[in-house]
What we know:
By secondary structure, the protein is of the alpha+beta class. The protein contains six helices and six strands; from the N terminus they run ααβααββααβββ.
Amino acid sequence: MESSREQTIxxxxxxxxxLIRTAAQSTGNTTSAAVWRTLGILETDEPLRLGELxxxxxxxxxxMTRLVAGMLADGLVTRSVDPDDSRGQLIEITxxxxxxxxxxxxxxxxTVGPMFxxxxxxxxxxxxxxxxxxxxxxxxxxxxxxxxxxxxxxLTGTEIPA
Length: 162
């Protein structure tokens, strides 16, 4: 049974990677995947010191320094002095960075949408449930629970009943 579960996780990882790569290539957008990844990290974990951001993005600190410089010039992030250590700087996503990230995700969504157009309602229910499970385990959504309802807010800001 464990082997089957491991195979399922591997298939999920490989398939999602292919799906994102295919969608990104289909958009024609030339922005580096590292920019989108960094904005996504900052959206969830901001603000971060440069070294922390580099580690989270799995790049060397000099690479992140160059990446952040470009993102600063584009108005996607801000840099400020770390109040806990004046030698350090904190990187934070801007409203413009959030807007660009939201637009990018919407573009990806509309690009891959046709690949799923033939799914049945039952298939959509399965996919919906799987997306909630994955989001809960990867911190890619905010889940709020009240006494009467439970909803998940997707990457595009849409509330989805759980």
